[in-house]
Design a protein that fits this description.
Blueprint: E1 3-8, E2 17-22, E3 55-57, H1 59-72
Parallel strand pairs: 2-3
Antiparallel strand pairs: 1-2
Length: 74
């Protein structure tokens, strides 16, 4: 199973929360190759409290997951 990490990406305008798929090896690198600092990780409140920003998903991470799952089905 893959783990998703959220972070604020300052390169995106307007500000948004970006979700990355983390590598299964337990490191802090995402499938797109970005190294994410655990201190930068955002944990959205389960009850919906706190500021809400739009969610975006890292396309390169999701493409890697899709390709991996497709290869496993062959």
């Amino acid at each position: 199973m893959y783990e998703m990490w959220a972070e604020h990406d300052p390169a995106i305008s307007p500000p948004a929360v970006v979700w990355h798929v983390m590598a299964k090896d337990g490191s802090t690198s995402s499938l797109c190759g970005r190294f994410l600092e655990p201190s930068q990780r955002i944990t959205p409140a389960a009850d919906g409290s706190g500021p809400t920003l739009p969610d975006r998903y890292c396309d390169p991470c999701l493409v890697t997951v899709r390709e991996t799952l497709a290869a496993a089905d062959r």
